# Entry
Amino acid sequence: MLSPFLHDPRRAPDVNGLVLRSTGSRHEVLTDEGVVSCTIRGKFRLQEEDATNPIVIGDRVSIQVNPDGSGVIVERKERYGKLSRRAAGRKVGKEHVIIANLDMAWVVQSVRKPRINPGFIDRFLVMAEYRGLNAGIILNKTDLMDERAEEHIGFFVELYASLGYEMMFTSVLTGDGVDELRTTLSSGIHVLVGPSGVGKSSLLNALLPKLDLRTGGISEATQKGRHTTTYAELLPIGELRQKGGFIGDTPGLREFGLVEIEAADLSHCFVEFREYLGECRFPNCTHDHEPGCRIKELVEEDELPVERYESYINMLRSIQLGDQDVGR
# Structure
């Protein structure tokens, strides 16, 4: 039975808004009248059995405004794009949604300190393809580029650009590429995801100087960054308005899982494989051990990049073993 509150004719009409910040039990919602601090109605929370967090940044919602100016989220609109990972701890098996209604998902990597991680990039791009998200790569700390790094980085830049992924290059220290990136992010909802230490917070500070986000150093022992972002929020580029642009700022991810992807779906998430998937001898070919595999033939002929094929095989093994996280 629905709560009588939902049918009370005396209540004010619902107000539509965009979730800007999520800090556990509280959610900041941007409406046409301003930002309202909201909770979630208990019955609404029970409707979400397969997700750890029914409301996330980027969600379009309807709220009921209380007399004291606070609000209650009473409805979540349908999502058209989301980024998620596998939940940890007691909630293993459930989906942990990070951000919803994305227009563009960017994976941030650094030239050095920590070094570029193609495996992380590939898993991010696979998840984006599976979700139907537009994806791009931001290569940060270009001021650290030297002759040795240039050869290594240049290979991957050429590889991902050839696959059609947008590439952007930035340096907080020199300011190179920051204005171009700000222009790109000035409409819609974007997210920047990457391992801690690649400079996401410093980059956001350069894009939006008034933010003054906390930044952390790099662990000398692990060459991995220390987490500095503790909650998720949408950061406005320019004027605060529901249409954007916004950047999603999320806690640093050292693990990025292939949530929901089945082994049979994986090859379809590699853009360079798609046109050849019907040319294998067996229709259910996994492109691993089967004879007559067109994908393997093209790799051996250097028509498909062996680095991406090896990345595919690593992901396939992870899915088959049920161990789908990266970053260990």
